[in-house]
Specification:
With 420 residues, the protein is an alpha/beta fold. It contains 17 helices and 10 strands.
Length: 420
């Protein structure tokens, strides 16, 4: 636990008790729905939560209810109703196990067993189009779910779905089916080092092993007869917006990268200004217990800096104007450093979850990748910028907020001058 996390836990408990999940992540329910959480389940969970300590119980309680209902429908022969409920149960069991930051805690393992069981039942009821993947990686294992379109598929494009630091592979089951496999695109929702089962089985994240894990997943996809090895892209949220950029710089086989809410700033904001749970979580993912050592050995070395100049594939970056984990000026400075074909959208008044535009973001990201993997967005020098107003308008040609009055903050101007 970090010093801030220990000292401020009472404040987070008050926020949860008074404002529910929105007090921690404004408008995030829209994003959670895109991750497979039915809003009625979500409301039932948080009606039971008055402090952080109550989260595992609440998630597990409502997850068990959904799983029981799924089993009932399966026994009655209503396969797709059962599959839908198994999906809802799986993502809630996933939240329950995530809420316990101790890989040795037997409750965490029990919740994971229920999550895996629900995914297995869902996969069978979906004609084996959702398949568990376990790959050897640097002496340990990494875990993923393969999502296949209906029917016979050959040489299709594929997209790696990268989770944020507090997400797991199961969070993408709903989005994979709705936005990718329904369009004939193969999807692979992953857990990298430090996440989900990978972390529970001893694999922590360091500065560079996440992008190596993505390369391992590219190896896997490239060998599938369903996949065209030349058309593999990545969709990343939050920390996977960061890890995806690192992967694109390190592995030229990644043919397109779309990142939303990417943590692309100096990491001072996310680790020392934002809610202390973010740093506490990342220290757990990286296997650190000493905060000072973590700061020196990892946190200070994490910013992308000039690394993004090495990316050659088309890049999309999307961020909320008031993202609490990355200052907008820093995100735009990172964008300036990218030399590959690129596109940027800033969403007015949105915070880190992009909850107010979540459905639009998930669909647009998938469609952007589909076009990018078809070669439509690869023109040298491509630079498309939009400021998306919350009243429905979109300003073309700039991603800068209108209230900046056509000025350019210093760090953005310096990054643009350095690239030139």
């Amino acid at each position: 636990m970090t010093v801030r996390s220990t000292g401020q836990s009472w404040a987070l408990d008050i926020a949860l008790a008074q404002g529910g999940f929105d007090a921690l992540h404004p408008a995030a329910k829209g994003t959670m729905e895109q991750l497979g959480h039915d809003h009625t389940d979500f409301d039932k969970v948080f009606a039971q939560v008055q402090s952080g300590a109550m989260l595992p119980k609440a998630w597990a309680t409502v997850a068990a209810q959904a799983e029981e209902r799924a089993a009932f429908h399966e026994a009655e022969g209503f396969a797709q109703t059962a599959a839908d409920l198994y999906l809802r149960a799986a993502v809630m069991w996933g939240r329950a196990q995530y809420s316990i930051f101790d890989a040795e805690d037997p409750r965490k393992a029990a919740f994971r067993e229920h999550c895996n069981h629900c995914v297995a039942r869902l996969g069978e009821l979906r004609d084996n189009r959702v398949r568990r993947v376990v790959l050897d990686f640097e002496g340990k294992h990494i875990y993923a779910l393969l999502h296949l379109p209906m029917g016979k598929v050959r040489n299709a494009s594929a997209v790696i779905l990268g989770p944020g630091m507090d997400m797991i592979k199961e969070d993408y089951i709903y989005a994979a089916e709705r936005y990718y496999t329904s369009r004939g695109v193969v999807a692979l929702s992953i857990e990298g080092p430090g996440q989900g089962e990978s972390r529970a089985n001893g694999l922590t994240v360091d500065l560079t092993n996440y992008e190596r894990a993505i390369s391992c997943y590219i190896d896997f996809l490239a060998e599938l007869p369903e996949v065209d090895a030349q058309r593999i892209g990545m969709f990343g949220i939050s920390m996977s917006g960061y890890w995806g950029m690192r992967a694109a710089a390190a592995d030229a086989r990644l043919a397109a990268m779309a990142g939303f809410e990417g943590v692309t700033g100096d990491f001072e904001t996310i680790f020392n200004r934002a809610q202390p749970t973010f740093k506490n979580n990342y220290m757990y993912m990286a296997g650190y217990t000493d905060e000072d050592v973590f700061d020196v050995e990892l946190a200070q070395r994490m910013p992308l800096g000039e690394l993004v100049a090495e990316i050659t594939c088309p890049v999309f970056m999307g961020i909320g104007e008031f993202d609490e984990l990355t200052q907008l000026e820093q995100a735009l400075a990172t964008y300036e450093r990218v030399r590959a074909p690129k596109e940027m959208r800033v969403y007015e008044n949105e915070f880190h979850p992009l909850g107010g535009t979540a459905a639009e973001v998930f669909r647009f990201g998938a469609e952007w990748l589909e076009r990018a993997l078809a070669g439509e967005l690869s023109a040298p020098g491509r630079d498309v910028r939009h400021y998306v107003h919350n009243d429905g308008r979109t300003t073309d040609g700039t991603a800068n907020p209108s209230w900046w009055l056509e000025t350019t903050p210093r760090q953005i101007a310096e990054a643009a001058a350095a690239r030139a």
